[in-house]
Amino acid sequence: TINSVTPNVCQFSTAEIVYSVDSVLAGERRTFSYMITPLNTPVVIVGTGPVNMDTLVTAAHNVVGIDTVSYTAISNTTNGCVGNTPAYNLINVLALPDVTSFESSVNDTICSGLTNDYDFVVINSALHDWTITYAVNGDTLTWTGNGNGTFTRAIPSQQWYDSAGNYSYRPITLLNIVWTSGALPWCSNSNLTDDSATVVVRPRPVIELSSPEHVCVNTTTQIYFSVEGVQPTQNWSFDWYSTNPVSGPNTITGTGNVVN
Asked: CA dist 149 to 16, 95, 99, 123, 169, Å?
């Protein structure tokens, strides 16, 4: 007797067939076989005596769709008697959730301290909540959502400083997507169609100022400044003001790092 068969399985997963055998004496050998279409490879089950409950694990179901499990009649090979032929069963093989597109919403380049938005397309997840696990800059984080469609999510703010103004190129890798609600089984997929994007983090320029603490009345003074975090071909500017006497805004411009 076939007691139960897993009705739904995730693609590339196995199923379980639970069966029992009676009308066989202890010590008598019995055999039957089953075959899953479209696998089409008979599997022979040989045992001894009655069994109250036993479980068979099928091969992986790799093709999305409906698989059919058919059986031969059970045969008592000790006395030659042939028993019943169990009715066939159907197994629904579910397509795995997937991400088919993953890219920056506008621009993958940001200044240090900012976040950035990314768009991605989720399929095969109707009627399911899901969680995507991703990695960026050594951190493992998650995004959540529901159903199919195009979604936009932000990565955390990215910090970076380099005195020469070099950018930090950071891959964003989608590690997996897993269903977290809806009908079981909750399928997962770690081999996504599109699983990578990039965030480019620019350092912010830094200015340092130095000046004398005291000056004589009616005299000028010099204020020295240094600029770092700027590449040699990049331009920069800043404004300065004074309150006594009132002056400004006065704009200072330059290119690349400056050391004074």
From this structure: 33, 16, 10, 7, 28
Q: How far is the C-alpha of 44 from the C-alpha of 32, rounded, in Å?
A: 6
Judge contact between 177 and 146, C-beta under 8 A. Answer: no
Encoding tokens for residue 131? 């969680």
Q: In 3D, which of 58, 68, 71, 69 has the Cα closest to residue 13? A: 58
Residue 4 confidence (pLDDT): 94
pLDDT in tens, 151-179: 999 999 999 999 999 999 999 999 999 99
Render 27-81 in DSSP notation, one character per residue. Answer: T-EEEEEEEEETT---EEEEEES-EEEEEEEPPPB-SSEEEEEEEPPPEETTT--
Distances (CA, A) of 225 to 22, 126, 162, 183, 210: 93, 59, 18, 65, 6
Give every residue of the chain whose pLDDT is below 70, as ranges. Answer: none
Q: What torsion, rounded to 10 degrees, do the Cα atoms 178, 180, 184, 190 define? A: 10
Report the distance separating Cα 186 and Cα 8, nearest Å: 10
| Tokens encoding 118 | 């990314």
Tell me how far apart the alpha carbons of residues 207 and 167 are, in angstroms, rounded to a whole number. Answer: 18
Q: What is the pLDDT of residue 99?
A: 98
Q: What global pTM score does this model have?
A: 0.88
Q: What pLDDT, on a 0 to 100 scale, did the predictor assign at position 188? A: 98
Contacts 24+ apart (CB under 8 A), 80-87: 83/23, 83/30, 86/1, 86/2, 86/19, 87/2
